[in-house]
Write a structure and sequence with these properties.
The protein has 123 residues and is an all-alpha fold. It is 67% helix and 0% strand.
């Protein structure tokens, strides 16, 4: 059973292979490299020059959700991203297929929860 995926843009987009990291991914990598070198100094300067901004950033939740799956154009892309999120950086085809099957089971369970809740509303 293949569950629908809201992030899939179109049949055409599903067939296109990404040409490499997205602009956002490249920018985040560059920012990460820069922060590793200059991070503490930049934070200190921000604290001294813009204490209001420093407090705003310091109190912002660290787990602000981003759509990391927006670039996924297939079930395989999503499975690869899920495996990478748990530290499996270069999953093989068999592992990707197993992740797709797990995801399909998970979606089926979510749909069952939804269906039970809907059934209870009508009773």
């Amino acid at each position: 059973m293949k569950a629908p995926i809201a992030n899939l843009r179109s049949k055409h987009a599903q067939k296109q292979k990404p040409k490499g990291p997205s602009l956002r991914e490249r920018a985040m990598q560059a920012l990460d490299k820069h922060f590793k070198v200059h991070g503490e100094d930049a934070i200190q300067k921000l604290c001294e020059t813009r204490p209001d901004r420093y407090v705003e950033l310091a109190t912002r939740p660290a787990d602000v959700a981003t759509d990391e799956y927006a670039g996924c154009n297939s079930h395989e892309d999503i499975a690869r991203k899920l495996l990478q999120s748990v530290g499996f950086q270069e999953p093989d085809d068999a592992s990707i297929q197993a992740a797709i099957e797990c995801r399909d089971l998970f979606i089926a369970q979510l749909e069952a929860i939804r269906d039970r809740a809907a059934q209870q509303e009508f009773n």
